[in-house]
């Protein structure tokens, strides 16, 4: 939980407990904390009381009700609970601009349902396979974890042979449209500092869209690779990408992703990444329909 409030206070001291009213949104719950409790213990109590309702990816400020002002004020620096009081947790309304910076250490690639049975139905499927394979090669070169799903593989087949899944962190079957499965969430939790997801595959308006919306709901930044993402219908694809872009998801291209990840001509893997880019698929018209 990211907090924009006072510096943490000292731990509890002096013995005994002090009654405190904890307010969040429309709720107010009386409880108590040890005498001398500081900022950290107040946060822990808020989480214990309201954890199921607090969006862990928001920023908050902790405020104290000041009798002399008859209103809430930001929690004073070094505040310790010494007497009965009322505190509240307030979500900040500041809109954080998504800059879309990518670094290999904080990025994970998601490859969604690039399966054999979709080959005849998905527009430009051969091109998105080619670009997807290039992205996975780039991920291996840069040490970026890759998570792969397959939609009902028993009926729809496995990932196409052209895509090399060597070294993928996870390859999972699914029936849910979104890739955000419990196993995927557990895998992300094991990777320190994950901030950005690079997402590609099919179909743009179904599995890609639902995955992207779930990921940003969890506070992750999502980059959809337009030249590695398609649908059966170009209209469905176009409107899905437009909708997603309006939510703050970044719609970009494979070349932009790979060059952003190396960031410098002097990067030790630049030449190999450059060679991947030079082997680009022929112009398919796919990007003209973004």
Task: Considering the chains and any ligands shown, give keywords for the structure.
single chain, 290 residues, alpha/beta, Ubiquitin-like (UB roll), Rossmann fold, 2 domains, 8 helices, 12 strands, 30% helix, elongated, disordered N terminus
Would you write up a description of this structure?
- The chain is an alpha/beta fold and 290 residues long.
- Helices cover 30% and strands 26% of the residues.
- It folds into two domains: 75 residues, Phosphatidylinositol 3-kinase Catalytic Subunit, Chain A, domain 1 (Ubiquitin-like (UB roll)), CATH 3.10.20.90; 171 residues, Rossmann fold.
- Strands 1, 2, 3, 4, 5 and 6 form a six-stranded mixed β-sheet that branches.
- α2 runs parallel beside α7, α2 runs antiparallel to α8 and α7 packs antiparallel against α8.
- It is elongated and about 70 Å long.
- The two termini are 36 Å apart.
What is the first-to-last residue Cα distance?
A: 36 Å
| Radius of gyration over C-alpha positions, nearest whole angstrom | 24 Å
Shape: elongated
Give the beta-strand count.
Answer: 12
Helix/sheet category:
alpha/beta
CATH architect. name of the largest domain: 3-Layer(aba) Sandwich
Instruction: Work out the oligomeric state of the chains in this entry.
Output: single chain
Average pLDDT, rounded to a whole number, is 89
CATH class division of the largest domain:
Alpha Beta
- How many separate structural domains? 2
CATH fold naming of the largest domain: Rossmann fold
